[in-house]
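Bumping with the actual sequence this time:
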Amino acid sequence: MGFTLPHALLVSALALLTISTPASLTGANDQPAVPYPRDFRSWRHVKSIVVGPEHRSFPNRGGIHHYYANDKAMKGYRTGTFPNGAMIVDEAVFAKDGTDQARGILLEGDRRALDVMVKDDRRYKDTGGWGFEHFEGDTTAATLSATARTNCHACHAKAKRDHVYSSVRP
């Protein structure tokens, strides 16, 4: 029994869908995608820092950084172990000098980037239970390459508390 053209096209389309779907759901290097954190500014503000021109990371990270944590991440800050579902956001904004009326005041500029960590020890078992992602500017499109994700994990694996460097400001 031979295949008709429409049947052959359907089989080809299903094969293509089967091959391409896992990659689109998991992202680079077969790691599940980290979602853009909607409404993260309503979460708990953990702390803010300024990365100034004297710091080695200034060309890529210079500016004001605000750290936010969801409720599950706050539990991790209290206990030292972050449960699945914990999410931490580092929102980086450019810093700018105030205008004539605000001379001497450092103001927030446009968003530079959003870095996100999410804990899920089943999905991200190869990276210490944490997924990492980077969103450039105001976009919601993930941009972290597999190599960059590996670099995030390598650095965060050195943190003394479950891959997390930040702590809640008292």
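The tokens above came from a reply further down the thread. The mean pLDDT is 84.
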